[in-house]
């Protein structure tokens, strides 16, 4: 009987350790990076046309860059939603600022 109790206790400990190792991890917080056009490229929704940039510019006339999360595996931005729409609008008409996403930067 004593061996049975020890066996059950050992199994319970191993099960507890196993279950604790599968504890759900907190999702990582997505941090937006600032992206600028690579030299010689024009505004597009193609992630490979952009590289990580410095600080956002301020103003209202000329496109500088935008904020978006990094892909994680390709060092390129994730372009989607309103940011993608803003870039499509700018690609079609670079003279008309578009910033529905609130993530596009312009300079004077």
From TrEMBL:
Biased composition range(s): Acidic residues: 83-94
Polar residues composition-biased segments: 96-108
Keywords recorded for this protein, A-Z: Signal
Source superkingdom: Bacteria
Protein name: Secreted protein
Signal peptide location: 1-24
Record keyword Signal present: yes
Ranges for region Disordered: 66-108
């Amino acid at each position: 009987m004593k061996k049975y109790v020890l066996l059950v206790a050992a199994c319970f400990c191993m099960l507890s350790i196993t279950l604790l190792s599968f504890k759900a991890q907190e999702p990582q917080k997505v941090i937006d990076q600032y992206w600028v056009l690579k030299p010689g490229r024009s505004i597009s929704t193609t992630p490979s046309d952009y590289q990580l940039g410095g600080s956002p510019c301020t103003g209202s006339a000329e496109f500088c860059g935008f904020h978006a999360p990094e892909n994680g595996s390709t060092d390129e931005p994730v372009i989607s939603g309103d940011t993608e729409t803003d870039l499509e609008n700018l690609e079609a008409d670079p003279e008309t600022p578009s910033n529905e996403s609130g993530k596009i930067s312009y300079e004077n």
